Amino acid sequence: MALRRCTRLLWNSTVLPGALVPGRTCASSHVITNRCCKATELQLRGFCAAPSSSGVSYVQLKQLLAGRKAVVIDVREPWELREYGVIPGSINVPLGQVNTALQLAPEEFHEKYGGGMPQQMDAVVFTCLAGVRSKKALDTAVSLGYKDVQNYLGGWQDWEKNEQQ
Question: 105: which of 28, 146, 155, 162 lies 20 to 30 Å off by Cα?
């Protein structure tokens, strides 16, 4: 005989008072169960999301590159750079290597990728062909403690279009 349970789950995300930090979203999650009219509230793990990141436009990326104010990392595969082209001043670190690369010693990073390794407080812009893989790389960098990370949303396709105008 199957047991009948009257279980209701309610997921409620709320902002924690006093935990508001610019560029961060803090939340606490609750699960409320009601089993045969006996209510129980469980506090689940509260969390703070990573620092917010933003997308940069073509014009912003050109300014960052001209002023050497950011490390630009292209996460496309090497064959894509040969076939489509390269954003001048960018460092190629294929997406599958980003996690490992950002944990190397600076000398090893330079030797393997031919550019200066960004430090956790440096401005870093990730780019790819169209902005999808670069978002994944950005998420990886944030998980490793990088604070000022951005995504070139249009990627190489947008760069090429704007360079031809």
Answer: 155
Per-residue pLDDT of the chain (165 residues; tens, 9 = 90+): 443 433 333 333 333 333 333 333 333 333 333 444 444 333 333 333 444 457 999 999 999 999 999 999 999 999 999 999 999 999 999 999 999 999 999 999 999 999 999 999 999 999 999 989 999 999 999 999 999 999 999 899 999 999 998
pTM score of the predicted model = 0.69
Q: Where are the alpha helices (DSSP H) in the chain?
A: 58-66, 78-84, 98-101, 106-113, 132-143, 155-163
Distances (CA, A) of 19 to 14, 79, 130: 11, 45, 35
Q: Is 128 a catalytic residue?
A: yes
**Catalytic site residue from 6, 26, 37, 128:** 128
Q: What are all long-range contacts of 57-64, with beta carbons under 8 Å and residues at least 24 apart?
A: 57/153, 57/154, 58/152, 58/154, 58/158, 58/159, 58/162, 61/87, 61/125, 61/127, 61/152, 61/159, 64/123, 64/125
